Amino acid sequence: MSYVEIPGAKVPIRMWADPATVEDGAMQQLRNVSTLPWIKGLAVMPDVHFGKGATVGSVIAMHGAVCPAAVGVDIGCGMSAVKTSLTANDLPGDLSRLRSKIEQAIPVGRGMHDDAVDPGRLHGFSTAGWDDFWGRFGGIAEAVKFRQERATKQMGTLGSGNHMIEFCLDSDGAVWLMLHSGSRNIGKELAEHHIGIAQKLPHNQGIIDRDLAVFISDTPQMADYRNDLYWAQEYAKYNRAIMMALFKDVVRREFKKAKPVFEQEISCHHNYVAEERYDGTDLLVTRKGAIRAGSGEYGIIPGSMGTSSYIVKGLGNEMAFNSASHGAGRRMSRGAAKRRFTVRDLEEQTQGVECRKDSGVLDEIPAAYKPIEQVMEQQRDLVEVVAKLKQVICIKG
């Protein structure tokens, strides 16, 4: 489908979703965002659903302003994937050992490494910029500096919720490695720190929702936020890169005879801010649950722990600010999923997948998400599919 345009307060709301299927709370959030004085455009992805302040699945383009709650608290959250030379024929009948080895190498949930990972010891990992990155830690908000040790030990860890590590097969039987994570606790604390500052600023006192408080250009608060935001986005990117290097090492050891070769990694943020230019104007584009899909750019759109995921190439649709969905998108809250479904439902919906099948991940049951095929159909003018993947192992925290 192409987009549906709905009148907003200052800009039209361009939706790559059927407005009738979007819950009332999310529609109100979109209208609220369209009232912001600095807004220049709002594009809504097919995985749209209710979030904090701004919906998940929205792309907000503003001139001279950025809303920290519209970035989300997991700054830089995103996906990484890599195709391997392995095929389905290389896999053992029982995948439980492989799953266990991956879980041993990469801490999940609230876990962290006993000692910080030394990237210099990781096979093929580029350490260019690593020392400079950590050197900039001294310049981030004083309020979170006491978390440095934790931040170093959480680098290369998964987290919980919808974060995952997957071992997938594409339609031709080729093995792909895929994972989803962000900036861990340090990103969350930076986000919450700055959201609190923004909400107290005088220019935000009259806005429709305090969770839409913004920083404006040429102020010290904006400079501080952008410094910390870009650092956290980099943390998230390194976090995924280190996890992928650890993941590859497990695969090398477990498939030693096959001598696996790995293609170029694909990596994309889906909770972040970028400086982009549209119609001759420099804008700050916030993608909250959306990936950049510029012409020819690779991206990753996952389903849920029992459905397909997609490797895509962007079509460069400027009406969507060169964006696409970040996944299937939830169709019910975590609480609603836990009330509605049972462990038996989870077992049925993840049949054939080596994964957790217990009440601790019931909120991640596939039925709690929108059908990924429908989401992909609704954004045919945003991306083209390069590969369709189905997981055989899914690890969650």
Automatic annotation (TrEMBL):
Gene3D superfamilies: tRNA-splicing ligase RtcB. Its EC number is 6.5.1.8. GMP binds at residues 162-166, 270-271, 302-305, 309, 326-329, 396. It is an enzyme of class 6 (ligase). It catalyses: a 3'-end 3'-phospho-ribonucleotide-RNA + a 5'-end dephospho-ribonucleoside-RNA + GTP = a ribonucleotidyl-ribonucleotide-RNA + GMP + diphosphate. It comes from the Bacteria. Binds 2 manganese ions per subunit. Mn(2+) 1 binds at residues 74, 163. Mn(2+) 2 binds at residues 180, 270. The keyword Magnesium does not apply. GO terms for biological process: RNA repair. Keywords: GTP-binding, Ligase, Manganese, Metal-binding, Nucleotide-binding, RNA repair. This is 3'-phosphate/5'-hydroxy nucleic acid ligase. It comes from Streptomyces californicus.
